[in-house]
Design a protein that fits this description.
Radius of gyration: 20 Å
Structural class: mainly beta
Helix content: 10-25%
Order of helices and strands: HEEEEEEHEEEEE
Distance between the termini: 39 Å
Oligomer: single chain
Length: 185
């Protein structure tokens, strides 16, 4: 009996991550990429309706994780069709020449408590910047949810050229938020 209790106690203490699965099936219909900014001092927000993602994340081996996101910039939804058309134009995203924004992860660092720091490269309008993206991960059975946000400076990517390059009407800082839901095979 003593050996059974000792074996049970040892087994119960094994890390739960040993049973973890790799989350690699992004569920776009349950995911969202949104943004917020200020225009003339008023908080505004929007979202991107289309994006493609490739993800490989095993909670037991977070440093092996890989992620690539391609956002269809013409799918922007600011809440006003005329604004969407303006932002897709040459001074802003120039979607004819640069139809997608891309994020490619380079490394993932576990911070504890289901928190991670994802370092990678973000490319918008042909300009690439290093970014660090804080994220949390919550497993819900065979599904996992990644939540996070980070700030970019639109001037770093030439988003808003010409008269829009000044930050007096539209602020330079843009807060990007995401909720990515992925299933495991």
């Amino acid at each position: 009996m003593k050996h059974f209790i000792l074996a049970f106690t040892f087994t119960a203490c094994l890390p739960f991550a040993a049973n973890a699965a790799e989350f690699n099936q992004v569920q776009a219909d349950k995911s969202a990429i949104t943004f917020g900014y200020q225009q003339m001092g008023v908080k505004m927000d929007g979202r991107f309706k289309k994006f493609a993602a490739r993800l490989n994340f095993d909670p037991a081996k977070p440093t092996n994780a890989k992620a690539t996101f391609d956002v269809d910039l013409a799918s922007i939804d600011t809440g006003a069709p005329e604004a969407d058309e303006e932002v897709a134009g040459k001074p802003w995203f120039n979607t004819k020449a640069f139809p997608t924004a891309r994020f490619v992860s380079g490394s993932v660092k576990a911070l504890g408590g289901n928190r991670y720091e994802v370092a990678g490269k973000l490319t918008i309008k042909g300009r690439t910047q290093d970014v660090v993206v804080p994220a949390t991960f919550t497993a819900q059975g065979s599904t996992g949810v990644f939540d996070g946000s980070f700030t970019i400076r639109r001037g770093d990517f030439s988003i808003g050229e010409g008269a829009w390059a000044k930050f007096d009407i539209v602020a330079n800082d843009v807060l990007v938020k995401f909720r990515i839901t992925a299933a495991s095979k």
